[in-house]
Design a protein that fits this description.
The protein is mainly β. The protein is built from 2 helices and 20 strands. The chain starts with 5 loop residues before the first helix and ends in a 7-residue tail after the last strand.
Length: 287
């Protein structure tokens, strides 16, 4: 049964963006856009549970399925319903299919564009009381937002959220990055030396198995090894760096599927020091 949620569709914009949230993306524009929404539609009130531990912006990638829970620690709208928010990167012309299912509660689904405006919502287009949105994106941005909402106040429980994307152009590496056949889904950039006196690392074609070998001033002499291990038991891929130079290293690793870039800085080692400490990031990337 279709149910009219226009008021809540407006409320979701106010509640999400009218009150600062803890964002995993670190987007500095969230507060400014929230203030603009508040000025456009005053009187709707703040997000009720903005200080709850679970009231954050999560992320989801094309092709990913997430199993999670709505709890009383999550964001709550003024109508008393709980909601989780997920950011994803979208390309103009791409069609996204969002499925939101639960056996614990009646689902309701929102899609917000980067401005942010609710551009689509759904109650029961999936099976039973589950929700489904199919929408062609008309803007390229990393800030499309999915609102995974319970339809009735106070409802909580386990749910599954999936995002499928079609028509997406193949991702490419940014300028200055290189690829390696050991890790076709990633791009790398290595900078060696102190600020003002740096050189760009070069990938060595002859290297160890499952390893990116990077040389500096002397071709063929590796200054760093990079590996991406996993998925490991915690579900993450672990970027691992071994260094052979006392010079400062800055290593950028970009995952093409998510558009996420990790930057690792290894400070210069003081003269006379025997150790050349490397690095391992145990929550680097999701597969």
């Amino acid at each position: 049964m279709m149910r009219f949620r226009l008021i809540c569709a407006v409320c979701i914009i106010i509640c999400v963006y009218g009150t600062p949230l803890t964002s995993q993306t670190g987007d500095p524009g969230l507060v400014a856009r929230g203030q603009a929404i508040d000025r456009a539609a005053p009187g709707r009130g703040p997000l009720v549970s903005a200080k709850q531990a679970g009231c954050v912006l999560h992320s989801i990638q094309c092709g990913q399925t997430i199993n999670s829970n709505l709890t009383t620690q999550d964001c709550m709208l003024d109508d008393g319903t709980y909601i989780d928010f997920y950011l994803f990167s979208g390309q103009s012309g791409q069609t996204v299919t969002i499925n939101f299912t639960s056996t614990a509660f009646d689902t309701f689904l929102f899609l917000l564009d980067p401005t942010p405006t609710v551009v689509a919502s759904d109650d029961d287009s999936g099976s039973g009381t589950n929700s489904r949105i199919v929408y062609m994106l008309d803007q390229t941005s990393s800030e499309w937002t999915i609102g995974a909402n319970a339809f009735f106040p106070g409802e909580t429980g386990a749910y599954t959220l999936s995002l499928q994307c079609t028509g997406q152009p193949p991702p490419t590496c940014p300028s200055g990055y290189f690829t390696d056949p050991n890790y076709p889904g990633f791009c790398f950039r290595v900078t060696i030396g102190n600020p003002g006196s740096t050189i760009q690392g070069v990938r060595e074609s002859v290297c160890l198995s499952e390893t990116v070998c990077v040389s500096g001033a002397v071709p063929g002499r590796s200054e760093a090894f990079v590996r991406i291990l996993g998925p490991r038991p915690n579900g993450y891929l672990w970027p691992t760096i071994v260094r052979f130079t006392p010079s400062r290293l800055v290593i950028n690793i970009r995952q093409l599927s998510s558009g996420m870039t990790r930057t690792y800085e290894l400070d210069a080692v003081p003269p006379g020091t025997d150790d050349l400490p490397g690095l391992q990031d145990r929550t680097g990337f999701l597969p």
